[in-house]
Amino acid sequence: MIRIGAGAGYSGDRIEPAVELAEKGGLDYLVFECLAERTIALAQLQKAKDPEAGYDPLLGERMQAVLAACRARGTRIVTNSGAANPRAAARRVLEVARSLGLAGTRIAVVTGDDVLALLQRGKGLGEPLAQLGDSVISANAYIGAGPIVEALAGGADVVITGRAADPSLFLAPLVHAFGWSSDDWARLGQGTLVGHLLECAGQVTGGYFADPGFKDVPGLARLGFPLAEVAEDGSAVITKVEGSGGRVSEATCKEQLLYEIHDPARYVTPDVVADFTGVTLAELDPDRVAARGATGRARPEQLKVAVGYRDGFIGEGQISYAGPGALARARLALEIVAERLRLTGARCREVRCDVIGVDALHGARLSAGAEPYEVRARVAGRSESAAEAARIGREVEALYTNGPAAGGGATQSVREVIAVATLFLPREQVSARVEYLEV
Fold first, then answer.
1. Which of 78, 266, 298, 437 has the most CB atoms in a 10 Å sphere around its CB?
2. pTM to 2 decimals?
3. pLDDT per position as a tens digit, 210-254
């Protein structure tokens, strides 16, 4: 049996639950899944400013917190924290290992997911992405478990990748530990189920599940992250460290099972097309859920590629109103700003006006109800330039003296939009490589 834990479900995730897993989880592997769709594109912008940046900014802090405990217990670490700069990330982990006196620590770097130069040389962006020209800043293929398995077979204590698929980070240790064949589709499908249940960390232990009075979860302030006890056939028990906060139940696992998979009969990953339609979940004991029944079919011939590109700027302004008539004053404020943007010829591709607390999430049709005591008016718009976008916030701030009575707490901001598009490449065009560093 292999014990594998989830130390992070996104880039900015908490560090304490990972420490708890490292020290008390009895793990063979600890996985940090730290990439979202736009993360690498944003990281590429950081790398352009500093060639030693472009990886997860919490990587050093995470390794400082868990590396000694993992090395002492023989727990191996796998992470896609390398983002746009896996080699620099590995050098950072090397620094941490040296500072902790962890001689002999072997770090593997998996590269090859960055296919931007390949696409640009071959003009493989296709229409309409080819029309984006210089606005394209990144193109990263979702690599699978194979190169991670190679790195583990090469004796790596820490494996750092760029854009590896989320469940592949968890599947790779199982393939390595159990010697599964790369075309054992049934076991790969079951291993992908394990990875999918664990990949978002605290979501499956009740974090994203909690809904007071309907789905109560204890101890959320010290939510424990999940781990899986996995057998050689891929069947698993999802659990957490005893005494940690949160809950692992049939219901929490069902919600995570359905998360972002689109078609349960055809969950496409770089390693296998998984079929979750036969999955069964059964509560064995409190905080212990058995998961089995997944299978799979042959992996796809193409790999998904996430393309990041610049897509203008969003300018935003907000201001608060409270007391009797707050809603009416907020709506008048929005009308004034919208009219001012028209009068002054602001060049905005789109403008959105909301009253936070009333209609900002679901629109006016669902916002009927009691008069709120306090609200916040928000205007946001998209423009081609930062200067044009900044005009929106300035008009909102001008409401202090030129708009409805008693507005306060005005803020304004401008941010660049990094958008993501998807294309597919034949897998033979993506060549992953493994390199090693050692303390």
1. 78
2. 0.93
3. 999 999 999 999 999 999 999 999 999 999 999 999 999 999 999
Which residue matches tokens 């004053």?
329
